[in-house]
Design a protein that fits this description.
InterPro entries: Aldo-Keto_reductase, NAD(P)_OxRdtase_dom_sf, NADP_OxRdtase_dom, TAT_signal. This is Aldo/keto reductase. Pfam families: Aldo_ket_red (PF00248). GO terms for molecular function: oxidoreductase activity. Keywords: Oxidoreductase. The chain has one domain: TIM Barrel (Alpha-Beta Barrel). 47% of the residues are buried. Strands 4-5-6-7-8-9-10 form a 7-stranded parallel β-sheet, with helices on one face. It has a 3-stranded antiparallel β-sheet with strand order 1-2-3, with no helix packed on it. Strand 7, helix 6 and strand 8 form a beta-alpha-beta unit. It is 38% helix and 15% strand. The chain contains 12 helices and 10 strands. With 377 residues, it is α/β, with parallel strands linked by helices. The protein is globular. Helix 3 crosses helix 4, helix 7 runs parallel beside helix 8 and helix 9 crosses helix 10. It binds NADP nicotinamide-adenine-dinucleotide phosphate. NADP nicotinamide-adenine-dinucleotide phosphate binds next to helix 2 and helix 11.
């Protein structure tokens, strides 16, 4: 990650400007808090009983209000790689809980997470939305640079269809922009794949507002996926608003801040050099200590709302805009169940303002500078 170390969220733009953008976002909420939300959805799950969930729209694509990020399951990004026999019940259990939105990518593993997701969801393929991502050179079997040349995208999609045991990718994302390929060419290639029926919707990941506009002009974008949480709020600088303006859904990852906002760590948590956590700027001893007041605030709201910290982290993000659909990653079905409980938590506009005021008082370490939101990552 290229995260610059800075000690507040408003490096590069004035505090007043940043605060007024936040206030504008909140003002938008009062008018739009029910828009984009689809009414209660009753469906039959794998064990034949009924579950209810509140769906949301990503452009024209309807998904459960919370999805499941499958990245760390088989590839073991934030945990040791888990066995397929342990993870299939988590994915199928999520379906039973009403989750219809599953996120993977060819680079996770590479390939092994898609294989897992494909096998787990095969019995319910027509009831779920599968999202996957292309954009890297994986011809040697491991990641070697970015590659979004049309031929590579088409090869990637053929592989995805086999691994995911399906004839279409519901949401096909560009994972990272390839500086050598104009995004219009990427969008044009996805447009062809959509015409062929191999992809149904187009998504972008970690992109600047201008890239979103250029891609969307060539092929309608359904969703933009990027990191966003109470701790990493840089995308409040134009990206999330651009999605709203263009009718594009926003899919945040890292919403529970890799478990930190789920109360998984404490101020003394330390990570070995070979752990993925050690490369994340929020997990230095200094940053963990600095961010404990955020966790304290989250715990306070959890008490007020009779909820858990992870539920508050998810509900807070969802309350920012009605077109936001988080995809928390988990290897544990009880965490998935807990996370789905966030769908039942609401904040009033006044509560959100109070929350925001307290949050903005806390200096953060390792977060991105606002201007970095205006360039592709
Ligand atoms: N587009 C991109 O570039 C990009 C980048 C990163 C990730 N993603 C996608 O986004 C998904 C989520 O991102 P992420 O995994 O990086 O971040 P995340 O969702 O913030 O964090 C996942 C971590 O949080 C823990 N967790 C989840 N629910 C919890 C709960 N209720 N209580 C306590 N801990 C909890 C999980 O541990 P347990 O396993 O113990 O529950 C896991 O280690 C990924 O799976 C992937 O699909 C996309």
């Amino acid at each position: 990650m290229k995260n610059k170390k800075n000690h507040s969220n408003n490096n590069g733009i004035s505090r007043r400007e940043f605060a007024s953008r936040s206030a504008l976002g909140l003002a938008g909420l009062t008018v739009s808090s029910t828009l984009g939300v689809v009414a209660q959805n009753t469906k039959t799950n794998m064990s034949g009983t009924s579950t209810n969930t509140t769906n949301r729209m990503l452009g024209d694509l309807e998904v459960s209000g919370i999805g499941l990020g499958c990245m760390s399951m088989k590839s073991g990004s934030y945990n040791p790689p888990r066995d397929k026999s342990e993870m299939i019940p988590v994915i199928r259990g999520a379906v039973d809980l009403g989750v219809t939105f599953f996120d993977t990518a060819e680079v996770y593993g590479p390939f092994t997470d898609e294989e897992l997701v494909g096998e787990a969801l095969q019995p319910v393929r027509d009831q779920v939305v599968i999202a996957s991502k292309f954009g890297f050179n994986l011809t040697s079997g491991s990641r070697s640079g970015r590659n979004s040349k049309p031929a590579n995208i088409k090869t990637a999609v053929e592989g995805m269809l086999k691994r995911l045991r399906t004839d279409r990718i519901d949401l096909l994302y560009l994972h990272r922009v390839d500086p050598e390929v104009p995004v219009e060419d990427v969008a044009g290639t996805v447009k062809e794949l959509i015409k062929e029926g191999k992809a149904l919707h187009f998504g972008l990941s970690e992109v600047a507002p201008d890239t979103i506009r250029r891609a969307h002009a060539e092929q309608k974008v359904a969703a933009v996926q990027s990191e966003y949480s109470m701790i990493e709020r840089v995308l409040e600088n134009q990206v999330i608003d651009t999605c709203g303006e263009l009718g594009i859904g926003f899919v945040p990852w890292g919403v529970v801040n890799r478990g930190f906002l789920g109360d998984k760590f404490n101020e003394y948590s330390r990570f070995s050099d070979d752990s993925r956590f050690s490369s994340v700027p929020y997990f230095t001893p200094e940053a963990i200590k600095a961010h404990m007041p955020v966790l304290t605030l989250v715990r306070e709201w959890a008490r007020k709302k009779d909820a858990t910290p992870a539920q508050i982290a998810l509900a807070w993000v969802m309350e920012q805009k009605p077109y936001i659909v988080p995809i928390p990653g988990t290897t544990k079905l009880h965490h998935m169940k807990e996370n789905m409980g966030a769908l039942n938590i609401q904040f009033t506009v006044q509560e959100l303002q109070e929350f925001r005021t307290e949050l903005e008082k806390i200096p953060l370490i390792g977060v991105r500078a606002p201007e970095t939101a205006l360039t592709d990552r």
